[in-house]
Amino acid sequence: MKKTIFLLLLVFLCDILALSLPCVFAESGRDAATLDTIVVTADQEDEKFQTGDVDMEETTGFVTVIEREAFEGKMEDLAEVLQNEAGVQVRQAGGLGSFSTVSLRGSSSDQVMVFVDGVLLNDASGGGVDLSSIALSDVAAIEVYRGVTPINFNKASIGGVVNIRTLRAKEGLNASATLGYGSFNTRQASGFVNHKRGKWDYLISASYLASDNDFKFLNDNHTKYNPNDDKWEKRNNAQFDQENVLAKFGYDFTDDMRIDLVNQWFSKDQGLPNWNNSPKADASFATERNITALSFIANDVGPLHFNSRTSIDYSYKDELYNDSHGTIGLGRQKSRYITKRYGGDFFLEWLTDMNVLSFMADFHHEGYDPQDLLTHKNPNKSTRDTLAFGLQDSVLLFQDSLTITPALRYTHLKDDLRSATNMWGVVLEGKERNEDYLSPQIGAKYSPLDWLSLRSNLAKYVREPSFFELFGDRGFIVGNPDLKAEKGVNFDAGFELRWPAKAWWLKYISLNAAYFGSNVDDLITFVYDSRGIGKAQNISKAEIRGVESAISIDFLKYFRLVGNATWQDPANKSEVKAFNGKKLPGRFENSYLGRLEARYAGVKVYGEYIRETGMYYDSANLLPAKDKNEFNAGVSWLLHSFLFSLEGRNLTNEQYEDFNGYPMPGRAFYFTVGYRY
């Protein structure tokens, strides 16, 4: 029934397009969708800036904004878009649609806060946000905040923030549709319509993405030094299909007062392959998530002309893990995990000629209800209440050439933990935790020239252990209810150059570089046994130091050269001799990207090379990962209102594993066609 309703909605969107008169793909003077353009500062012309958004000209942190043009019309997911950025590492468990997490500057995935339109996706259940559960068809832009986090976000952590801005209604009637097909029977369909006339507006976006993911790979049966049992096999039980619907309704009371109602529904069913690729593996994982948010914006309020945004939200997530035959985890397991989260936040800002003062208040309640569907001996529910306040002041000096931004967050956390079990499944006695944290930060930006800015930031953050780490999950993880919260200090310093050149052969140069570091006490990391079963533990200390840089050059009118590089040293400073001085697992040491784009009239072509080296799968550094070397290429053609795209991924067909035992696909090709009204 759900899929029938979903497909009817897609048909409805496409019918609207079919009844529409043809027109140009974009507004007059706008070029075709860029294949992979990365914009450092936000383009606020296409979409109206709203109170609560971060003003990129004021922030002192290092931020990348990936506009929709960089991925529109391509067969990609969020993980594949993010992996091209400096300082960003994405780990996937098997290609498009597989479980994917993001790391910023050597952090863990749990240390990166992921928001969708200001609603936090990192719930208390934890495990990191699965990037594959965020549909790109809804996304207008992706903001990546490394290290320091603006007070606009109600929660910050050691790694930073990824903020997903979904589409917003524009004037008039706008619509689009995309269809795609590719290797491994990958299918894609999406539709979008928005209408804004007068004070009312609405927006509906729906998408479908599925793949068999039955790519071939060389299975060595985990006997590295015995090539006799190596053989090429198709990946078993890695298929997935997912649907997504975003609906928005808004009303402008006046130019300064607006109300928005947003609902986003997501559903996904996927198979879970086991470590040795057994054809008998039949484990599965199903996710259904719904987020509803109501926000009210009131600007120019009172004699001091305050701007404010008040929001309430409710999210529901239902996850069903089914390994009834015990093919991938610790014995037979069939469990349901229900997470409910509700609360509200308030944002207020006061703008003067000399400063921008911002205040944030937030309260959220989360309930976590794990259910054992085989034994029916269900652990009790656990809850987490979070109360947070934040104050930030951006002081503008010397005709706005110098910005100094101190900020302070206070967080009160109350846990009622009653879901823990021991390794034999016996429910442990519950406990309560009350914690208070202060997180100060300060940043500075100095622009001695219009095209040059110098930036530096220092911040202290705390991350509490998730229920995933405290209680275990899905047969892969054993819980540890005695975990302490992580405490970390981040710092960075660097520069950003944006120079519009005037030479005939050189049009524009963008260059930025930063030295960064973080010191973390009681870092939570997973230690795995010989069966591949992990347990979260606090190691005493970790130190990460690194350099990230990115460059973009527009030259000879039709060409663009893009490159970035990251070097980092994620060092484990544990008191345990076996781990002290080792590299933190799951973090690369070196990452490089180079891409050349060419455009002429409506045709665009690109080729890129991605390389990552120096990663270990385990804390003892006994299992080094193979270096990643990937060549990709693509071409797009804009013909009136249609955009045709052809992409080739991993053209050299090199096998690589982000997670040990979970290979990524080899060579793949995808074709999409899109139409916009």
Written account of the structure:
It is a single chain. Helix content is 4%, strand content 55%. It is mostly beta strands. The chain has a single domain, classed as Beta Barrel (Maltoporin, Chain A). The two termini are 30 Å apart.
Features:
Maltoporin, Chain A; disordered N terminus; mainly beta; 22-stranded antiparallel barrel; 33 strands
Terminal Cα span: 30 Å
CATH architecture, by name, is: Beta Barrel
| Strand runs, count | 33
Low-confidence stretches: 1-46
* Principal-axes shape call: globular
- What characterizes the major β-sheet? 22 strands, antiparallel, barrel
Level-1 CATH class name: Mainly Beta
Rg of Cα set = 24 Å
* Number of continuous helical runs: 3
State the secondary-structure class. Answer: mainly beta
Summarize the structure.
The protein has 677 residues and is mainly beta.
Chain-wise SSE layout:
Elements: H1 2-19, E1 62-67, H2 78-82, E2 88-92, E3 100-104, E4 112-116, E5 119-120, E6 139-146, E7 160-166, E8 172-182, E9 186-197, E10 200-211, E11 216-219, E12 231-234, E13 240-254, E14 257-271, E15 284-301, E16 306-323, E17 333-351, E18 355-372, E19 382-397, E20 402-417, E21 431-449, E22 452-463, H3 467-471, E23 472-473, E24 477-478, E25 486-499, E26 506-528, E27 534-555, E28 559-572, E29 590-600, E30 603-613, E31 628-639, E32 642-649, E33 668-676
Parallel strand pairs: 4-7, 24-27
Antiparallel strand pairs: 1-6, 2-3, 4-5, 6-7, 8-9, 8-33, 9-10, 10-13, 11-12, 13-14, 14-15, 15-16, 16-17, 17-18, 18-19, 19-20, 20-21, 21-22, 22-25, 23-24, 25-26, 26-27, 27-28, 28-29, 29-30, 30-31, 31-32, 32-33
